[in-house]
Structures are given as C-alpha cells and as structure tokens.
C-alpha cells in the first residue's frame, strides 16, 4: 500500500462531516475492533453519539440466534490520526433487546463479554474510597516479516537484558524511538492521561505510563492507548506486541504493573496499617488474581532472568521494598511516610485493565464480585 498516496487524500475536506471511529473489544475481551461512522455534527458528549451495531458473529460475540451487538459510547476523544473535528469513540458492548420488549425504549443489557460494565459498577460502589490507579505498560516492536524484535541480531537465539537498553540513548540502544515518540504525542492529543515513556530492558522494548487516574478512567485510557499502538504500527509497518514474552530469551518479558491506592491508604496516621491489611487480603486471593492477570503470563516466569529466578514460583505471593521482582512492590517513600500507594507487579502486558482494577478494589475493600450472566465477572482459580 502506498502511504504517500493515502496522505494526499487525508488532506481533503470532509465538508463539515465528522468521522467517528467507534472502538470496542471483541469476543476474546482483548481483541480491539473499530469502525468508522460518518456524523453530520460534532458530538459534545458520549450521550450525543448515536448507538450503533456490529456483527457479533464476525467479532466472536454471537449470542444465540441474534448476531447483533450494540455499541454504546462511553467517552469521546480527538482523533490524532485524522485530526480536525474527527473523534475516537470508546464503546462497550450490549446484547440486542428482546423482540418482546417495548418498541419505544427497550432496555439494553451488557454483553457477556463486556468487562467494562461490571468494573464500572464496582468503581461507582467504591467511589467513597476514591481508588486511584496508574499502569506501567510494556510492549515490544517486532519485524512483521520475521516476528523478531527490531534491534536484535538476526541469528540470536533470544534476548539478553542489557543495562544499556533501559532508559538508554543512541543508535542500536533506543531502537524504535520514532514510534514511541509518535505514540506519546498521539495519546496526548487524544486527551489520554499518559504521563511518560521510555526505552526498556532490551532493544525494541518500550514502556509508557498511564495515570494517575481515578476509578474506571485508567482502564478506558489504557485500552485506547493500546488501540493507538495498533493503529500506529500499521503506519510504521511494525508489530507492537503486548505478548508477555513474544520470543524466548534471557529477559523478563513484558508486564503491566499497576499502582494502586485508596483514600484510606493515603490517609496520614492510618495509611500504613490499611496497606498491610490490603496485602494480607491480596495474599489470600493470589491465585484468583493470577488467573485473571493475562494470557500467557507464566512465560514471564521462565528463563534465567525471569521473575521466578529472582523471586520464586508464580504460585508464591511476595512483598518487597523497591523489589521489582516481588508480587507487590512497596516504594521507599511509603515506608518513610507510612502512607500512600503500592504496586502490583503481577499483571502481564496483555491483561484486561477492567478485570485487574476491579479485582484489586473488590479484594482490598472486601466487596463481592459482580455477577455477569449468572457467573462472577472475573475468572476464579480452581
């Protein structure tokens, strides 16, 4: 495809029409989908965005004989790819209303694959505790023809973590900086709460931070930032992989560590005691969290430089001061001030932030998991 030719037509006037790119999650809960709807006006809020539908068979969301899935806008953002008045529309998915329902205003129910709906219910119920999250998202840039990370020797059998790569500079060290810079600017243009980016432990591996965000905003912004990763990878002709370990080697893979605090953990005089109670509750539910913390997460515990080599089995729950190989990292500043936040380092890079943040809140605040289609909204360990 000729990108130069496409860029010529990108400058053409749309004659007052607004291109709204609807973005949603497909049936796996991690496959990002999008489609363009042309509007004759610029919406000022999600409530102004028309309800739309997609084919559930094609997205793995077929629900009985009816294949229609409804898309409902939850947030709107300036589109950094098209510019102008064009927008990105983050949506979640709903089942088609029953034919027996009143034709006037049938009630829509969240689709069984919609993890945003139960997460939103939890965050609203926990609003008094003011849960705040940040996420350190890692990814690896791959050559689309070889599926091998850019910047790695072609005949290498794997990668080795390098002290030069982390936050490094220079040719052959910070490989893919143009991509990471473009992604950062695109996220900022879209109004996402991205707070930084950096080269990571091996060439071709990068990370960026989303947050701090209150409640469900962290998950919404993280999913949209991942969407922009995928869209920009089309233009740069690379694969932006969030696989926990896309290739083998002596490196720790990709993660998505989540920093978490509540009003109570931040409170002077009692925050440290609340944090300790949170940690006890997280230890008791360790495997339930691990089941929900990303597909292929166990790969990060394999190899000489893996998390297992540094901190033990993935079955072990560990806590450490400034220990990035522990399950939970306690910052030095929190030990000094006796209040603040802690970091859950167990989630993999492809985790669903709706599930992770919902589990953190439900476990630490001792709230029941919401039910979806008669089952808990998050997977449970057997």
UniProtKB/TrEMBL annotation:
Chain ranges of the GS catalytic domain: 115-382
Gene Ontology terms: cellular component: cytoplasm
Signal peptide: none
EC number of the protein: 6.3.1.2
InterPro entries (alphabetical): Gln_synt_N_sf (IPR036651), Gln_synth/guanido_kin_cat_dom (IPR014746), Gln_synth_cat_dom (IPR008146), Glutamine_Synthetase (IPR050292)
The entry's keywords: ATP-binding, Cytoplasm, Ligase, Nucleotide-binding
Gene3D superfamilies the UniProt entry points to: Glutamine synthetase, N-terminal domain (3.10.20.70), Glutamine synthetase/guanido kinase, catalytic domain (3.30.590.10)
SUPFAM superfamilies: Glutamine synthetase, N-terminal domain (SSF54368), Glutamine synthetase/guanido kinase (SSF55931)
An individual GO BP term: glutamine biosynthetic process
UniProt GO molecular function: ATP binding; glutamine synthetase activity
Protein location: Cytoplasm
UniProt keyword Ligase present: yes
Primary localisation category: cytoplasm
Family named by the database record: Belongs to the glutamine synthetase family.
Protein name (record): glutamine synthetase
Lineage: Eukaryota, Viridiplantae, Chlorophyta, core chlorophytes, Trebouxiophyceae
